[in-house]
Amino acid sequence: MYALRKTAVVAAALLAAGTALVAGPALPSTAAAARPMENLGRGVVAVRASGTSVLITWRLLGLDPDGIGFNLYRSTAGGAAVKINTDLLTGGTNFVDSTADLTRRNSYYVRPVIDGVWQPASESFLLSAGHAVEPVVRVPLRAGGAVKFTWVGDLDGDGAYDYVIDRQTSPQTIEAYKSDGTFLWSVNMGPNSTDQDNIEGGSATVDVGHNDGVTVGDLDGDGRAEVAVRVANGVTFGDGSRHTESDNTRQSIAILDGRTGAPRAKAPVPADYLADGPLYARFGIGSLDGTSNSLVAYMKNRIGNGGFNLMYTAWKFNGGTLTRQWKFLRGNQDLPDGHNTRIVDVDGDGKDEVAEIGFVLNGDGTLRYSLADEGIIHGDRFHIAKMDPGKAGLQGYGVQQDNPSGLREYYYNAANGTMIWQHAEAGVGDVGRGMAGDVDPRFPGMEVWSFSGLYNARTNQLTEPDTSLRPWPQLGLWWDGDLSMELLNAGKIEKWDPANPKPTSSLPRLLATWNYGAVTAAQSGPTLVGDILGDWREEAVYTNASYNELIIFTTNQPTTTRLYTLAHNPAYRNGMTLKGYMQSHHVDYFLGSGMTKPPRPNISY
C-alpha cells in the first residue's frame, strides 16, 4: 500500500517565478484564450525496479518554465530527508535510486528550482519497507463486484488524481476513492440498473456495451472534479437522497459533488425519443467554447427492432445549475456513428469539436461534415491525432464493419473530412480493431494498422511487407522511455521491433499483468489507460480478482525524454473522460520518433 502527503501547492509559485515556455515560441497575441486545466501536483511515484534500485518519476507540468530543474529527496524510516542527486535534474523527470536501504520504508519528494530559486516541496510518496519488486502501485478498495471502468479526477482539489469506479453488480453502484484508497461515497443505481442488456437495458444502467453514462471532470472551474451520471427513478446518491421520475423510462443528468456524491444539479434528458424507451449514453468532457468545460452526451435507443435514434446534447454546469447548451438529432441524416466518441479541436481554433467515426459536430452543435459521401458506414474503432508531423492539422483513421463496398480502413483530414486514402478488399469484412501510433521509427510519422497490414499513415506504404507480422491492433502505451509506442494487448505489454518483426503471439513481452495479480476487464483490457502518475509515460489500471484493490501499472524504466504531463494536453485530457470501447488517447502534437519539442499548451490552472 502507499500513502500520499501533500506538503505544498507548487503551481502558483512556479507561475510567479518565471514566464519562459516549456517549449516552442510564445503564443501570438491573436491566440485563443487559455483553457482551464487541472492544477496538478507533481504526482511523485516510486517503484522497486530491481532488488537494489528504485525508480522515482514525477510530473513536468504544462506551464513549467524552460530550464526548471529538480532536486530529489529521500527520507528513510521517518528520518531527516537527504538530497540524493548530485547535480540539478534537468533531463527526464525520473531518477534511479540505487543507494536506499530497501529493508526500511522510504519516502520521496522533489523540490523544483527555477532560475536558482528553490520552490516549495512536492507531495511525498511512501515506499513501504521490503516492498515487492514490481512496477505497480496498489490502491485499496472496499469489497464489491467486478469493475469495468475507472475514471480519474481531482475530487478534493489537493492536486492528486482520485478514483471513481463502477461495480457491475445488480443493482449497479458507482464508488469514489481518494488517491490513497480512502473511501468517499457510493451511489446505488437502483432497480432500473438491473436490466443490463447492452442495447436495450434499464433506464439507470451504466457501463454496458459501448455505453457508459458516467464521466469525471471539473465542470465549474472551482478546482475540484464533479461526477456526471445519467440517472433514472430509484437512484440513491452518496448523501442518501433518492432520485425520482414520473415513470421508469424518463431520465435525467445529475452532477454530483466529487467529495460527497450528493447531487449539486440535475436536468431532464430531452424527451424526443421517449416513445422508444430509455436512452443509453456515452459521456465526455471538452471545452466547446475554448474557455470552460462542457459535458457532452451521446444518447441512443433502438426504434422497435430496427434502427437507432441518436441524440447529442451539450451541457454547462456553473456550480449551481445544469443548463443545456444545444441538442442535435440525427434523424434521417446519413451520419454514421460507431462505438467511440472523441472530443478534440480538429481545426486548431482553440475550441473542441465532437467526432464520431463518420461525422463531426462543431462546438455549437451544428454539423461540420459527414464522411458518408466518401462511403463510410459504421465501424468499431477510429483515431484522431497528429499522425503526419509534416502536414498541418490532425488526421483521422478508422476501420469499417461489413461495408458493402469492401472498404476496410481509411485515412482523412480531421478538420474537413477530405479523404486521403482508403483500403478496400474483395468481399465484405468486419474489421473489429484498428490502431494508430508510431511503432516504426524508420518512417516519419505514425503507423496505422488493422488486420490488413502495418501502414505508415503519411505515405500509405506498408512498413512490414509480410502483413501477418503486423502488431495486434488493440491499445498503445507509452512505457519504456523511447519514443516508439508500446502495445497493451490482453494483459500483456509488448514491444514490436521493425528490425525483428514477430507474429502477435511471439512479440517480446515487457510484462504480463496477471503475474502481479491483475485481471482484465471489458474486452480483455484495463479499466483505464492514462498518464495519471509520475512522468509522461502512461499507467494502466486493473483490479485484482477479488475486486478489492486497484492495481496501477506504472513504468519501472528510466528515460532521458522530458515532456510535460500528457494530462495537461487538452486533447489527451478530453480522451481520458471518454469510454465506449476502450481506445488509446492521443495528444494534439506528434509524439513519436524524430519528434520536435512540443509547443507549450495554451492552458491555465
From TrEMBL:
Keywords: Signal. It holds the Pfam family RGI_lyase. Residues 1-22 form the signal peptide. Gene3D superfamilies: Immunoglobulins. The keyword Signal applies. The keyword Signal applies. Residues 36-124 form the Rhamnogalacturonan I lyase beta-sheet domain. Residues 151-257, 287-601 form the Rhamnogalacturonan lyase family 11 C-terminal domain. It comes from the Bacteria. This is Rhamnogalacturonan I lyase beta-sheet domain-containing protein. It comes from Nonomuraea insulae.
